């Protein structure tokens, strides 16, 4: 690897504008997370307006997921090579233009294309945002506060998206679920250009690993598409099975190539460290449970209980509040005092307790007596565990690898989301069909649907308990404060100096 630039005295002074930079990074992250759910609420209206067939409706979600999930590692490495501020601004501008295209869509091809473009630019934007935090905030206490804000947004953004999507669709038009991204992106881009300055010493000056990029992107696309297809076509369907086999082969080749190349897309030291590897795995498992829960609770509230889209969004607010408190008031305050796993394990178990309450859901469950307490527990638990998990996921990496380490956080979330929706939806559908057959009712009978939801939520409960076990076994007690071991720098990297201006 070519020598990294020398650090000047000016680089050693923390950038006085780093907290202002956090505001614009947070705005951008909120936009990306919102987009995961805000469009979902508007789907029926877009389908009717653009005459999209029921079979093709899934591509509004799938085209985004494939582009975003498949290109994340590429986007993370590009941020390391080009510069994170530059990648961040390009990602924002591209995302805004793609959103404008989606809002103006006149046919299904235009809508699907805009969603794919959102995914492409999102894959550049998301790793750049997280890695900017990693290189701008190097003081332990400041880093905890910054990641507390980031973790709260990452956890609560999906629920906020349901509220915003419902409000925009009900009172304006489905197209505003796309247009709403534009002001977010414009404000964040202008702020980033004016305020954010990353240290030159954190830039990676190696060459782009083309074979690694191709193998990683193809392998991740095949994996995400396999899970997405399984949800609609079944797990034993030919193309679904072929996608999983292709993904396994491509990702195995990717690991082989990365272990032999001098400038890998994903240096294996990033994921073989037990703390980071454990954080990626626990985070992915937690997301599996969360995505399934959002899906089932949304259906339960709207279809079974007859809530409007706006009322459904408001119903999720206790979870949002819980996540914000868990991330900023518990996670951020205690992560510098206790080991990360001592926050993650209780946090995940608290979330699991909330999930356990939801297994008792019935046709007429009390919102105040059952749903709201469960959501508060889920929010508190997830917020408390997400914050140290995300901080741990990027702690100890070399500054030049911050982008790709951040991309792995997003890969965990995307793959976890794809698995959660596909696997838990399959379980719910199967349980609903069994109940309907045994009781002589149709699968659309509310009682049959609730039986399906609760069956899947039992699995989500088990997965969250499993995530707590993974965090307890893989993440050691020292966490990100561990010192580097040997030349590979598997522990904490040297602090990254930040330019003053």
Write the layout of secondary structure elements.
Blueprint lengths: L17 H32 L4 H29 L1 H20 L4 H29 L3 H32 L4 H4 L1 H15 L14 H24 L4 H23 L8 H4 L1 H31 L4 H7 L1 H18 L6 H18 L8 H28 L7 H38 L6 H29 L27
Helix pairs in contact: 1-2, 1-4, 1-5, 1-7, 2-3, 2-4, 2-8, 2-16, 3-4, 3-7, 4-16, 5-12, 5-13, 5-15, 8-9, 8-16, 11-15, 11-16, 11-17, 13-15, 14-15, 14-17, 16-17
Description:
With 501 residues, this protein is mainly α. The chain has two domains: 392 residues, MFS general substrate transporter like domains (Growth Hormone, Chain: A, Up-down Bundle), CATH 1.20.1250; 49 residues. α1 runs antiparallel to α2 and α5 crosses α15. It is globular. The chain starts with 17 loop residues before the first helix and ends in a 27-residue tail after the last helix.
Quick synopsis:
The chain crosses the membrane at residues 21-45, 57-75, 87-105, 117-137, 149-172, 178-196, 208-227, 239-257, 278-301, 313-331, 343-361, 367-389, 415-436, 456-475. The protein is mainly alpha-helical and 501 residues long.
Please tag this protein with its features.
501 residues, mainly alpha, Growth Hormone, Chain: A, 2 domains, globular, disordered C terminus
CATH overall fold name of the largest domain? Growth Hormone, Chain: A
Number of helices: 17
Q: How many strand segments?
A: 0
How would a textbook summarize the main sheet? none
CA-based gyration radius = 22 Å
| Helix-strand topology string | HHHHHHHHHHHHHHHHH
What's the CATH class of the largest domain, please?
Answer: Mainly Alpha
* Proportion of residues in helical segments: over 70%
The fraction of residues in strands falls at under 5%
CATH superfamily of the largest domain: MFS general substrate transporter like domains
Given as residue ranges, the uncertain stretches (5+ residues, pLDDT < 50) are 1-11, 479-501
pLDDT averaged over residues: 82
Structural domain count: 2
| Coarse structural class | mainly alpha
The assigned CATH architecture of the largest domain is Up-down Bundle
Q: Report the principal-axis shape.
A: globular
CA-CA gap between termini: 29 Å
InterPro entries: EmrB-like, MFS, MFS_dom, MFS_trans_sf
Domain Major facilitator superfamily (MFS) profile: 21-483
Transmembrane segments: 21-45, 57-75, 87-105, 117-137, 149-172, 178-196, 208-227, 239-257, 278-301, 313-331, 343-361, 367-389, 415-436, 456-475
Region (Disordered): 479-501
